[in-house]
Amino acid sequence: MAKAPLLQLSDISLTFGGDPLFRDVSLTVQQGDRVALVGRNGSGKSTLMKVMAGLVEADTGTRTVPPGISVGYMEQHPDISGFATLGEFAASELDAGEEYRVEMVAEGLKFDPGLSPQTASGGERRRAALAKLLAEGPDLMLLDEPTNHLDIQAIGWLEQQLKETRKAFVLISHDRAFLRELTRATLWVDRGITRRQERGFTDFEAWRDKVWEEEDASRHKLDQKIKAEARWAVEGISARRKRNQGRVRALQDMRAERAAQIKRQGTAAMALDSGPKSGRKVIEAEGISKAYGGNVILHDFSLKVLRKDRIAFVGPNGVGKTTLLNMLMKREAPDSGTVTHGTSLVPAIFDQSRAGLDPDMSLWENLTGDRDMRVSGQADQVLVRGQPKHVVGYLKEFLFDERQVRAPVRSLSGGEKARLLLAKLMARESNLLVLDEPTNDLDIESLDLLQELLDDFDGTVLLVSHDRDFLDRVATTTIAMEGNGQATVYAGGWSDYRAQRAEAAPVAAEPAKPRGKPAQPGAPKPAAPKSKPKLSFTEKHRLEELPGVIERLEAEIAKLEGLLSDAELFTREPEKFRKATDALTKRQAALSEAEEEWLELAEKAEA
Description:
This protein is α/β, with parallel strands linked by helices. It is built from 20 helices and 21 strands. The protein has a six-stranded mixed sheet with strand order 5-6-7-3-8-9, sandwiched between helices. The chain has a six-stranded mixed sheet with strand order 14-18-19-12-20-21, with helices on both faces. β8 and β9 form a beta hairpin. α3 crosses α4 (122-136), α7 (204-235) packs antiparallel against α9 (245-260) and α18 (537-564) packs antiparallel against α20.
């Protein structure tokens, strides 16, 4: 028996600014559906969801919701004016006596229902909007980036609620782990076309790549056919062309079809330059503590950060992750203990509050007004990793078009603001990146590219994020801040931390054994009855991964040497020759460093 539809869109088309955002979109959401709505930033996902919610009216087509079916939408920027508290807003559509539902949801989402809208942050307002939707429990929930501004614990709570619900939902999120865990079908918005696959997000990327491969093959065939027909039209005898006007018209139709095809948007041209190499020791914190009044943020914490470490800081919102980062960067002094920086540090900081952007200034002004990017005497140029570049050209590399260049930053979406801040960050050389919530609002392709850049980055990375998948792919060490001043160091990313934490938990049937102070990167382990390697968590993890790093570098060097063995490459493709030569030099240096590092760690392990 077929499921009854909850929502149906038929032949929906919508145009903004002269360009069609959607063309002839038809879709149905049924009872029990758990749908991922995916697409690039700017593809129209949020607008399509607003059409589904009935908040945006399409130019053509119809939206149908059967009588008695309720559709709820989580607002990104809810209007809370007229309400005394966030809780009053969240309970505004509930029947009398059902306000307890908001209290239950508020506990899981970690927001205060008694907070005044006048003092609430944007994140608190968003959590109130999410609480409102969950408390109301409509037949169909439309959730646009519900995990933004939630910490990992709250994301886990929300994930469990959505797993257990019988309600249908459509979900927009950049959080891969969240999407993989929850979705059973995927709606993909791509250049005005909406496709559906009856599989969850786990299979999305393979499906997307297959569609694009088929599209490229079809385009290639069309190009070859156009070339062949064009050659016939030029070389053919006039009389024959007159007898074959149908063939000429077919050629014109093929050219029109090719011209109408919309080019896929590329990924942002992000690049990182680590500049001068820092010393082997980057940061050393010894016995640092911090408290505000009676709230202990950190107690007697020590950490050694070495060059090329990727250290992630995780924990609930408000636990002090940013405070710890600020102390490590000497932007804030600890109450006790010391922080020492190594030599030749060139830091660059990505601020979660986007404080590096002036919302009232244009994109152009935000770049040209930055003293680190300013080119003397050139109002339309910015300095990008030491080289002058036209400001519009540089912004295009980060997927901004010319219409946006003079627009105020406040007009940008969250993902666009993140890209602009990354453009500022990546314009300068840096061997120490401090990234405080860089993943918020970035689309999946941009996250992939950022992860690849961090993998190849020759410097050190300190990272705060609630994106579990991103943490797993980037972090080599995780520092878990769990409240009451406690911060514990674990090897690996989020999944490694969770596994080690589970292993460390005492078994109920046995008395808990006393545990020593957790090891810190760079600190020796406590003495044991038998001689054991005196390696820190980070060093042990690095020793295990280095053989794979060395093998990969050797394979890349062999490939580049094979490319450069072509004697005619320099004459035929000088730019390709230059890039290959530069890449070979960098990889040979990286291989030498990796081998030296492996020897040092192996000797230390055997000591």
